[in-house]
Design goal:
GO terms for molecular function: GTP binding; GTP cyclohydrolase II activity; zinc ion binding. The chain is α/β, with parallel strands linked by helices. The protein is built from 15 helices and 13 strands. A hairpin with a 2-residue loop joins strand 1 and strand 2 (31-37). Bound molecules: guanosine-5'-triphosphate and zinc ion (ZN). Guanosine-5'-triphosphate (GTP) binds at residues 217-220, 231, 233, 236, 257-260, 262, 267, 270, 280, 284, 315-317, 320, 358.
Length: 360
């Protein structure tokens, strides 16, 4: 057998490289490009890469809208680098932190026509790496040069973003008595694509042939652990565990998709924007993200691994129900989970109801 990394493993390496500010080489059909995440760029690498003829900043159409830059490529825009472009300029294109204090960043010239495969893939990699979706993309005449510098190289014919969700393997499970549910067991699942681990908390011994009381909870460090008043996550987590403890059976999936899938750093960037008056959805858009970047297929995959095919789902989010059903998990009942409303999170919950279809 070959010991070489497979496509998923190469992609995992690429994500790590991007988080360190190391460029990654993308190639396909004889063409190639070096891509690097703007937020992690050093002065030295920016000077070297920005000087390459044809280098552009790839940003999402969401971010372009805020910057008033024309997005000719549908979901993304390619901003040309002005002659005097500095790293500071590139970072202010990527990061909305100073949008209001220094609004005059443009006007921006954006490219039109031509192939955007590398740009789109670069944005996808940035999101997978939980980085701001703003990438410096530089055409590369000779991909051999990237290999010679030991850069990670992805052949998009084989290593493009996979359409199917990762496979999950249970690493271990052990008994975990909890205040709210004594008969607990924690299962740890590891994906086969080098991505995040996710957890399942099983309460009691639920019958696999009956619909199980289930909760799909997304990680919220601020709400779950710190008791933040900005959201309802902590009370929902404890409310779900409490209900399962009382029932004597249930399954709580704890998915490590912090900040609706944008990561904690970006969620805190969103919180900083919320302090300037933007709501939770607007803040995501200004950062360049969609409202919700989570992949709920993971929840269905874990349920299947655990032997469940039917749930009574504790949620107020119809998208979770639709996704479960689309993934072949029967949702026999929606169990509302309305706890933890405070003065501080009332506007947040109202925005979720108005813009994201949450049920009140
Ligand atoms: N980007 C972003 N994420 C947030 C914000 N507030 C909370 N979150 C995240 O939102 C997610 C909330 O997860 P859930 O409670 O599972 O999801 P939900 O869509 O509200 O659905 P239900 O609670 O099931 O009704 C967590 O990952 C939080 O970290 C915010 O203002 N911005
Ligand atoms: Zn929260």
């Amino acid at each position: 057998m070959t010991l070489a990394p497979n496509p998923a493993e190469r992609r995992a390496r690429a994500r790590s490289d991007l988080r360190m500010g190391v460029p990654v080489c993308l190639y396909r059909d004889g063409a190639a490009a070096l891509v690097v995440a703007v937020e992690c760029l050093s002065e030295g690498r920016f000077a070297a890469l920005g000087a390459i003829d044809g280098a552009v900043l790839a940003i999402t159409a969401r971010r372009a809208e805020t910057l008033k830059a024309r997005a000719y490529d549908g979901d993304l825009a390619r901003i040309e680098l002005p002659k005097a472009a500095t790293l500071r300029w590139a970072q202010s294109v990527a990061d909305p932190a100073d949008d209001l204090t220094t609004p005059m960043k443009g006007p921006f010239r954006t490219e039109r026509g031509g192939d955007v495969t590398f740009h789109r893939e670069a944005i996808a990699l940035a999101k997978e790496a939980r980085l701001l979706p703003a990438m410096l993309v530089c055409p590369l005449e000779d991909p051999e040069r990237a290999a010679a510098q030991r850069l990670t190289c992805l052949d998009l014919a084989t290593d493009a973003a996979p359409k199917d969700a990762a496979g999950y393997n249970e690493v271990v499970s052990a008994r975990l008595p909890m205040v709210l549910a004594r008969a607990g067991r924690l299962h740890v699942f590891r994906p086969d694509d080098g991505g995040e681990e996710h957890y399942a908390v099983e309460i009691g011994q639920p019958d696999r042939t009956e619909p199980v009381l289930a909760r799909l909870h997304s990680a919220c460090f601020t709400g779950d652990l710190l008791g933040s008043l900005k959201c309802d996550c902590g009370p929902q987590l404890r409310g779900a565990l409490g209900a399962m403890g009382k029932d004597g059976a249930g399954i709580l999936l704890y998915l490590n998709q912090e900040g609706r899938g944008i990561g904690l750093a970006n969620k805190m960037r969103a919180y900083a924007l919320q302090d300037l008056g933007f709501d939770t959805v607007e803040a995501n858009h200004r950062l360049g993200f969609e409202d919700d970047e989570r992949d709920f297929r993971i929840g269905a995959a874990l349920l299947r691994e655990l032997g469940f095919s039917s749930v009574r789902l504790m949620t107020n989010n119809p998208a979770k129900i639709a996704m479960m059903r689309a993934q072949g998990i029967a949702v026999t009942e929606r169990v509302p989970l309305q706890v933890g409303k405070t003065d501080e999170n009332a506007a947040y919950l109202a925005t979720k109801a108005a813009k994201s279809g949450h049920l009140l």
